[in-house]
Design brief:
heterodimer; A: 78% helix; B: alpha/beta; Peroxisomal Thiolase, Chain A, domain 1; 2 domains; six-stranded mixed beta sheet
Amino acid sequence: MATTGKEYGKMAKKASPDSPLIPDCIKAFLIGGAVCCIGQAFTELYSLLPIEKDTAKTLTSMTLIAITAVLTGLAVFPKIAKHAGAGTIVPITGFANAMVSPAMEFQSEGRILGTGSKLFTIAGPVIAYGCSAAFVYGIIAYIFKLY
Amino acid sequence: MPERIGKNTLLLTSNPSVIGFAGVGGITEGEGPLSEEFDYLFDDDEAGQSSFEKAESLIHKEAVERALSKAGKSKSDVDYIFAGDLLNQCTGSTFGIRNMNIPYVGVYGACSTMALTLSLASIFVDSGAANCAVASTSSHFCSAERQFRLPLEYGGQRTPTAQHTATAAGASVISSHVKNTPCVSAVLIGKIRDLGIKDANNMGAAMAPAAAQTISDFLSDTNTKPEDYDLILTGDLGKVGSALLKELTEKDFGVDISSVHNDCGLLIYDMENQDVHAGGSGCGCSASVVNTHVMNNLKNGKLGKVLFVATGALLSATSTLQGETIPSIAHAVLLTGGERE
């Protein structure tokens, strides 16, 4: 009796190991936490300068983006991210990597139709849906007079 | 002349010989257990080229030239070359062989390409349509990642079922029968199978049903049992697909292949110490394993009868995004050691 698609789906699920959830969560927590601690340390450092608190925070984001860009270029970032998972994707490091990696990758197709058009391959949806969500929330905030 | 036996199998009655064979690989392949057997290993992913696509073409060309040189043939001796790869419009192979001036037949069979090109080249020689034909294929980890997945430097995680596309190429030169060389004795062109797997990171599971069907069809057409072979070698099912294949052949066809089965995706890398998840994949994986390790052992008599079954997942990046299931294929080639003197 030939195996049906439904039966095979069950067989395949049984034969396919899942990602190790608990070790992955622990690594994501530790590395993601470390990224945040580094960010906080930069904020504290920049706060020592004669600048506004908001400017210190902006500088912190810029610093993390710059570090990620360099580590991506040196092929070190993917090695960390392989273990960190959400720990490096969720902070601003993930966004920076999502921009730099296609920029590097598609150089061979030229500056305009390669790097230029493929730059937002991964980050594009984040920007598109992030802006849409902000728009919807803006309307809600306006209607319910949240601010 | 090929003689059809059973429903799907072609016996190649003249036993065309594989008079030259070569496999080349990249860095990760050179760190694997078969490194000594490769004809050449590139120590740079770009192979000194300006893009990964160009690197793949160079690797392909290298395999073909080395196979021809080992066969003692020049390009002008070759009547046809059957070649293919994973890249869109098969540019990995065509760009590699474009200056060879050999009549070319482009073949796409995804990761099953080596078995398909080997079958076609052998049928051409057996039927008398060619005196000498080349079968070749290649894949490159980086060009495949670019086309099918995400940029290389993107910091994502891969699932345990994902396979690592080999940076490798293999080529066989087929000619009329000569003694003491590996022969292609029979071929079976497979049928497309789709049991509804959608996960492009679990190609082993998607391809196992096609392999099970092809193996059982071949055994039934030739009236043989798994024990009649020294090795039933699937091409790139990896860990997950190999386990499912054994389960399926037993359950659906009542055949137990576990004592003679191995998989190119498991042979090419050190599964314990190399970070390749469920094993190797890509056209170049089975092509390089067969054209090094297997052919060498057929030639020196350590193996006598090998059923090589290369599997291919016939998906595209678009079909995956559109939520399609993955149709798969498997082609079988019976390789024998040829008579000894």
